[in-house]
Each structure stands twice: as structure tokens, then as C-alpha cells.
């Protein structure tokens, strides 16, 4: 350290003289490179989850183990132990706790998640550090089809309990561990830390909550790991894992008993004899028939026993949903054991593997520590030279660079004269003055900054172990349930702005019916369903999105063909419409009329409100009145990675997306408080802007909205600018055409307040949304943008044009 934070110093430079050379290790002991290496805490409990090395290895003290050198920071102890252990776990979470205890780390909800996935059968594969074989035997699946008798027997809580039982997994594990030696890492001194690791650490933000800091921290621990390997045991391991989905008919004790019997059957093959050898010669012909019969009988018995074991194996294999064989260390010829797992030939393969472990030892048992623990050191030890008169900390005359505020000093150094190529002065060196920047003004500033960064790194690792990797640029949002976008509108609306009139519904226009029921109607409707309804030729025709209408889809039962009765029929289900609320009700008469066509109609429908009506192009109708409750995003997830500060000239979110339905871009001051939300709704009809769930303005130009396709992508952007001095917040929406870089603004709106928006996220509607290429950029220059229809340039900024009859720019034209 010594205050020299640059690179490329030459001999003669004060910072060159500050370097302390380390003694190399030309004949390093096998396995020392595993110690002091970063480790991904969410990975697999094996060497395949290693990251970059966080330490430097020096052999100045000339330690040896056998014929190999041992680094100064490590200690080797020979151990020659062998153990065979079997375990049963009532859940995969118990297995996670076992791994956490074995590695001496604090268990987190996603610690060793890849190992959990592999053991439960979600992943199967091999790595460079061991042999992995897995097989799924059997399986189960469940579909959500509707099937119900005429009597009511549905129960959502029962289905939830069934789902919970099906997701519980029992696990049995057998380990054969061959230990040869163990390597411990002693306390690491500052000079033993990897210089690149230190440089990256010093470059981290001081706070995890700084805008964009999550991605910087993620890049750090994905490169260096969340933990590092403190000690490891070397040798070989053979591990067999079997899992089974728990059911009501299988208890944990029964599973453990069956697993124990299965392990005994497996271990019995290790000592079984493949054949019986008997010496004979020409003078042994007097051997009696009894002996021959006994011999053949014993051979037959052995064959029968072997057949029985095979039958038991097949019966046992059917009991498991997943089996996995993992071998670490030794000769990889043990792969032949995959096909001989339940045969006596496994004895030979196992013996050869045991003999090869001395030649090919691998680490398979680790003790881990947090990477941040390496940085919890006395900061005075970072400067072994004490007080110096060079570098950033040896100067008292640090200057401040205008514009950036960075501290720097100048250093005179000698370089060869490359400009003068004359014979006399060509080789004479010249003295030049270099500017060298300082990250810290003094040692105290460095110590305080290191402490803040270490605590921020601990927080980042904790979040990663709980939440997983931040997929901030490309992600997929699932679809919400049917009718989720307008559910809040139906609940909070103060008038019937979005409710279709009966005249509109019977006038030949299409409208939407949103069903919201506690249970499915078997063979007809789902509990949450959306259909398009149209009255045509005195019949009600209903279709789902993407389906083709047919003549047989028209119904007129129960008097629904009489427009005066205000009744509709959806697939034969008769309902009465309330024009004041937009709600459909199945009255007693409707139920009786429906039962003539639907023989299995459930009794719970009688007298129940089951659906609501909406305009098919709801946004057109909502735009006719300002400050009304509108659509809300259905599936939205907030993350620390999506934080920003729009007060410094504004920020723009650029992304490419595709969806059959709506795409929401949501900004918030407090994500859990809807009253602080400002969001943009991108639909095939156009674009709408909401504040606190209420509609503020719309842009209904067809070219302004989305494509309404799950496979066709468009590039969008939303800019937010908060001016603290003028107390305004400006939201701008637009697109970036494929053939040019200039942004096209389609919607712009100004709020006369500072909204204090600090988080952004994306939401979906009733269709999934795919987002890719997300980036957060500064707001483009005013002369670089293009104002499209509905906006105009005022004072160099695109602003919304409002119709003369509209209020405060509620609708663009």
C-alpha cells in the first residue's frame, strides 16, 4: 500500500521502491491453490463453486510436506481416516442446514442453493472437479383442469395443503469419505492479500444504498466470491443421494427405514463374491457328486441372491424420484460404477478407485469464512514502512482538480528521451512531471472508508444470499390473474365511468366480461376468467382472446334474447346485468334457466355476483374524465438494483420489451405506498400516465403504444426530471426507432411538485412481459430529441398539447 494507488511504476520511482517482493512457490503442494480462494455461497458445496484467489502465496519460510512446498500462510496436517455415514433429511431445508454446519457458516435462505437444486433433481450435470451422475426415476405432474360434481366440494385451502405436501421432499444420503490430509489457512496479513482484490475493494461504493451500488457489489462478489475457503480436507469422496416426494402415505420414519435397507443392499455388493474358485487337477477326479452338487447349489444360491438383490434394487429404485452419484477425487475410471451400482462388479471398481486417491486427491470438505472478514484487519498494518515521504500519504500539499474535486499531487520521474533520436542525446533520460491522483487525502480517510466499504459489502452479501442474483437488465414478468388490472377500478370507482351502458352492450359492440368467482364452473369457466361478449342476431356470443368465434357459441336461453330483461348468456350461464354497477348476478330464475343446459351447474352460484363488465377499449373511455381510478400493474417486484436520483439533470430508463397486453413502468418514492406511485401504462391502444392510481393524461395515437405481440419487440424510454428549485417533476415517454438513435417523445407531463421518486420497476397486466437491454442513462440534450404528435417544443422541451375542451392536458391530440 504505502499510499501508492497507481500501476506501472518503474525502477527509480519512490513507489517502485515501496514494493516488497514475495518469494514464489515453484513446487507447490497439491491443493494449496484451493485455499484462500473465493467461493460462491449460493453455489454447490464443492470446488466447482470457486472464484478468483483473494490471497498471494509465498514460500519464504520454506515449509514442506513430503516433497512439496507449503505457502507461509498455510499449515498441513496428515490425516488418514475413512468413514461411511448415512443421513436422512425430512426436507431440503434440513439438508441446507447440514451443509451450513459442515462448512461452519451462518445459514441463509438460499445458501448452497445450487446444491439443493441438484440434490432435489432440478439440475443434473458434471464438473471438472468430480464425476456426477444423476437419474430421475418416476415423476408426477398435476394440471389445473376443472372437474367437479354437482354437489359443492371445492376447497381452495385443501388444494393449498395438497400443494404444500407435494412440494415436501425426503432425502437420503450415503457418504464414503477417504481423508488423506488437511490444509489450514493461518491468519492472513495485509501483504498476503491479492492486490487486485484490494484494488477492487477500494473501488466499491461506501454505501450499499448509493444509486447503482447493487450492481457494482454484485460484480465484486461474482468475481471474488461471497466467502473464501479457510480450510479443506483432501482425499476422495463417494456420495449417493436419493430423494422422494413426501405423500400422506409415507412418513419420515418409514422413508428412513426403507433408505437404510437400500444402503445395506448397496454396501453388501462391496463385499460380495462374484464367483467361487475351486482348485482341481487330473488326480482329483475322485471328487464326489455330493461336492459337485453342493458347489453347484451354492453357485445357484449366489445367483438367486444376486437376482433377488436386482429385484430389490428395481423395487427400491421405483421408490425414489431422483438418484445421484457424486465422486470427487481419485481416478475417474470410477465412472464405470454407474452401470454397476447394484452388482458385485462394483467391488473391483471401488478398490481401484481407493488406491488412486493418493495420486489424485481432491478437496471435498470445506470450512468457509466471509470475504469481508479478510478485510477486518488493523489498518496500521497496511503500511509496513511506517511514515513515508512519498505517495498520497507522504504529501502535505495535495491539490484539488477543478471540476472533478479529485485530490492529486505531482511527481517528478525519469524517462528515456524518445523524442530526440540524435546520436548524442538519444539515450539520455529526461525528467518529466506526472499527475498522480489520490483516492484518499490521508490515512484516517482511508481507514474510515475501508470500514464503510466492508460493512456495505457484508450487507450486499447478505442480500445476495437471501434474494439471489440481480437480473437487472433482462428479465421476465409473469402474467397476472384475469381482471387484475381493473380490479382496483371496480373497487374504488366513485362513478360508472368505466361501466358499459346496456344500450352499448346490446348495440352490437364488443365488451369485456371479467369473472371473479371463488371456484371454477366445471367445463365452462375458470374462477378468474376474461371473455369478450357481443350481442348479435338476438344471441350472445362469447370468445376468449386468441380463439375463433363459432356459431355454436351463441346462446339465448333464459330470456337473454329479450333486451328489456337485461340478461346475458355466457356459454349457457344466464346472468342479470346491473347497469349502475356493471355487475352480473345469477338470480334464482337465472340459475333455473341455466340448469336446463348445464346439468352440473354448482349450487353455490345461486344468488351470487359472479362477473363485471368493462369496455373493450377501456382507456378510450377513461380518458374522457380526468383524475379517475385506472388500470394498475398486476405483477411488480421492487429491487434495490432499481434505484436512481432524477434531481441531477434527470434520468432516462431505456429498455426493449414485448407483450401481448400492457407494459407498466412504475416510479415510487415509497414502493409499498401506492399514493407515491407515478407510472406509465403502454398498451396497444396508446399510452396513459397515472399518479396515485389516478389517470392524469393519455396519448391515444396508435403509433405511441405497444405492439400487442409476445414476440415483436420495441425500444422504449421514460425520463424523469425533478427540479428542486422550481418544485416540478417532469415525466416524458417515448420510443427509439430501430433506424436512428434520436429519441421520439410521445408524451410529456409536468407535476407542480417534487415527487421525490427514487425507485423504478416494471409491471405486467393479464399477459406476461419480457424486458431486455434495460439501462439507466442521463437525460439527452434538448436539441437531440424529436417531439411527436401530441407534444410540442416549448422553451426547448417537449410538452403536452391539450385539446381545448380537455382539462389540464388530460388527452393529447
UniProtKB/TrEMBL annotation:
<feature type="region of interest" description="Disordered">
    <location>
        <begin position="278"/>
        <end position="320"/>
    </location>
</feature>
<feature type="compositionally biased region" description="Basic and acidic residues">
    <location>
        <begin position="309"/>
        <end position="320"/>
    </location>
</feature>
<feature type="compositionally biased region" description="Basic and acidic residues">
    <location>
        <begin position="283"/>
        <end position="292"/>
    </location>
</feature>
<protein>
    <submittedName>
        <fullName>Uncharacterized protein LOC109476156</fullName>
    </submittedName>
</protein>
<dbReference type="Pfam" id="PF01823">
    <property type="entry name" value="MACPF"/>
</dbReference>
<dbReference type="InterPro" id="IPR020864">
    <property type="entry name" value="MACPF"/>
</dbReference>
<feature type="compositionally biased region" description="Low complexity">
    <location>
        <begin position="294"/>
        <end position="308"/>
    </location>
</feature>
<feature type="domain" description="MACPF">
    <location>
        <begin position="18"/>
        <end position="405"/>
    </location>
</feature>
